[in-house]
Design a protein that fits this description.
The protein has about 400 residues and is α+β, with helices and mostly antiparallel strands. The chain is built from 15 helices and ten strands. This is Cytochrome P450.
């Protein structure tokens, strides 16, 4: 009998709830054979310890030309080309890249951005409130805020934020955009950033890209022109697309059970814990994440993943593993180990920008509870819909009232 390989991502019954298959697989099957949107197959991991192993064990390599294609485009999607022409994602090349960037993403340095992020959030909320209730929180707050932050961070004009938003969405396609559209986005983006790098090298300012160009031009520098372009692309995709989605998701998750939002209004000290619990519980944003390729046979309980197989370490499923988190489905902003979630990854590829992402989410939540204490979902939970066709899932427009 021919094996029926399920399509992945799995369908779900409720927008904010995980697909039932995750819990079923955690209970009975450490490795599941699944079919990706491209038609290629991969091995899905859902248990916390297994996912952590795939993210940290050097036997599992990040991407590469032998990896299963994720997207329906000819090149297989962002993972198959994001750092082409560089050695940024593997071995010593990756460690070198991280060493050069890590000084720019310390918690202390990111905290210095809090007043600027707060000012941007207040300005956008001023405009939202002025436009009146109801309003599309996604389009008029969740999306533009991280784009403005990233533009300021890399020294790009804020007037170009719509270009950044378009390029990032096209480059993150699973099924939504054609190969020609993807190719054009890369050409336009790389040309834009190349010009920006040249401008910053000639006339550096007080921004990250200027700092990186000076590092790359110094005697101990190792960042090539192509690596600078790939770095800005990584910052754009991680710092804008995922954070804007997470702002909308956080708002929806808190308002879907209104007492969660009210609890933070009553006790703003819960902001930090609430953000961590939202990051742990979200099931919509990164269901494919960053695939790995097994460099050699690897055993998970009694199942062997063969060398050359592509592995999908499902972080949102791992974040709900009862082996790691007691009553994992329960929302608890006081959960002691919530920050052990794998949303930002772990190990050598732990997200460099996570201090900024956390800061933005904390600022957003603090601003919303202070200025819009009567906030509600206009259409309730039933009015929330998943974004489809993109590597970063998340939600379609989140409409709110106050």
């Amino acid at each position: 009998m021919t094996e029926t390989v399920p399509n992945y991502p799995f369908e779900r019954d409720a927008t904010l709830e995980p697909p039932q298959e995750w819990a079923d697989l955690q209970a009975r099957c450490p490795v599941a054979h699944v079919r990706l949107p491209s038609g290629d197959t991969a091995e899905l991991l859902t248990r916390y310890d297994d996912v952590r192993t795939a993210l940290t064990d050097p036997r599992f390599l990040r991407g590469g030309e032998n990896a299963a294609r994720v997207a329906t485009t000819k090149d297989g999607g962002i993972f198959n080309r994001a750092t082409s022409g560089t050695d940024m994602m593997r071995g010593e090349g990756h460690m070198r890249w991280r060493r050069l960037l890590s000084r720019s993403f310390t918690i202390k340095k990111m905290e210095s951005w809090r007043p600027r992020v707060q000012a941007m959030a207040d300005e956008l909320l001023d405009e939202l409130i002025k436009s009146g209730s109801p309003a599309n929180l996604s389009a008029h707050f969740a999306l533009p805020l991280p784009v403005r932050v990233i533009c300021a961070l890399v020294g790009a004009p804020s007037s170009d934020q719509d270009k950044f938003a378009h390029w990032s969405q096209v480059m993150l396609t699973l099924t939504r955009y054609s190969q020609a559209e993807v190719e054009q986005a890369y050409v336009d983006f790389d040309g834009y950033v190349s010009d920006l790098v040249d401008a910053k090298r000639a006339d550096p300012g007080d921004d990250l890209l200027s700092e990186l160009t000076q590092i790359s031009d110094s005697e101990d520098g190792r960042l090539s022109h192509q690596e600078l372009i790939a770095t800005v692309r990584a910052l754009l995709l991680a710092g804008h697309e995922t954070t804007s989605n997470m702002i909308a998701i956080m708002t929806a998750m808190l308002l879907s059970e209104r007492e969660r939002y009210q609890a933070v209004i009553d006790d703003p000290e819960l902001i930090g814990g609430t953000v961590e619990e939202i990051l742990r519980l979200d099931t919509t944003l990164s269901v494919i994440g960053f695939p790995r390729v097994a460099a050699e046979d690897a055993a998970f309980d009694d199942v062997t993943v063969p060398a050359g197989a592509t592995v999908i370490p499902c972080r949102p499923a791992a974040n709900r593993d009862p082996r790691r988190f007691d009553e994992p489905e329960r929302f608890d902003p006081r959960r002691a180990n919530a920050a052990q979630h794998l949303t930002f990854g772990v190990g050598a590829h732990y997200c460099l920008g996570q201090p900024l992402a956390r800061l933005e989410l904390q600022v957003v939540l603090g601003t919303l509870i202070r200025r819009l204490p009567t906030l509600n979902l206009r259409d309730g939970v039933d009015g929330l819909h998943l974004r489809k066709g993109l590597l970063t899932g998340g939600l379609e427009d989140v409409w709110v009232t106050w």
